[in-house]
Amino acid sequence: MATPKNPHAGFSDAVSRVFLEIGFGGGEHAVGQAELNPDVGYIASEVFENGLCSLLSRLVPEGEEENAVPPPHFRIWPEDARILLRDLPDQSLDQAYLMFPDPWPKARHAKRRFVHPENIVQMARVLKPGAVWRVASDHPVYQEWVTEVMGNQDLFDAPPPATERPEGWSPTRYEAKAFREGRFPFYWTFTRRP
Ligand SMILES: C[S@@+](CC[C@H](N)C(=O)[O-])C[C@H]1O[C@@H](n2cnc3c(N)ncnc32)[C@H](O)[C@@H]1O
């Protein structure tokens, strides 16, 4: 498990950068991004047990799960990412991902949406100046919400989203589900202001 107070030290090999993914689901995006960025220490967080099993099955050969050690540049945070965020030092992350977060479309549940003023302040605190936070969503309510909330803050540059997956982004299970069901994802790239 990564060490919240000193994320670089949580990896068994030295890493030059640290990335965090919040809510990795089946883990395909986390594995894809870790492979694309071999110099990076990748922290993948998820609260859903099936997701944790799915990621482990991608990382560890079948039958070796019990004594398995994750790859040296990969760590799993099997709890609420907000706990980790709260404990991470200032400017300790080089990139973050929030891919297809739970949309909580009912207005009375808006407080549960991850893109929320309180979490935005935490994200801004832990990301280095110039670091990128990638967010994707296919849900119209969430798309409108992100546009509004990110339009009302000044910690990140928040240009309009791409409507096709940008190069260098990895596919996810929920993205595939969105395409199958005829929805159109937005892909935002937010940059931490200096
Ligand atoms: C809609 S799924 C998307 C999964 C994956 N990112 C994808 O695109 O296929 C959202 C995931 O975020 C996880 N999640 C929600 N809140 C979380 C939190 N606070 N910390 C970590 N994971 C969280 C959920 O358990 C769920 O697996």
Structural overview:
This protein is an alpha/beta fold and 194 residues long. The chain has helices at 28-36, 49-59, 81-87, 117-126, 140-151, 173-180, and strands at residues 17-22, 40-45, 74-77, 93-99, 127-137, 156-157, 186-192. The protein has a single domain, classed as Rossmann fold (3-Layer(aba) Sandwich). The model has no long low-confidence stretch (mean pLDDT 93). The relative contact order is 0.16. Helix 1 (28-36) links the parallel strand 1 (17-22) and strand 2. It starts with 16 loop residues before the first strand and ends with a strand. The longest helix is centred in the last third of the chain and has 12 residues, at 140-151. Residues 22-26, 45-48, 51, 80-82, 99-102, 172-175 line the site of S-adenosylmethionine.
CATH superfamily: Vaccinia Virus protein VP39
Q: Report mean pLDDT, rounded to a whole number.
A: 93
**CATH-derived architecture:** 3-Layer(aba) Sandwich
**CATH level-3 fold name:** Rossmann fold
- Radius of gyration computed on alpha carbons: 16 Å
General form? globular
Overall helicity: 25-40%
Assigned CATH class: Alpha Beta
In this entry the ligands are: S-adenosylmethionine
Q: Proportion of β residues? A: 15-25%
Number of domains: 1
- The count of β-strands is 7
Uncertain regions spanning at least 5 consecutive residues: none
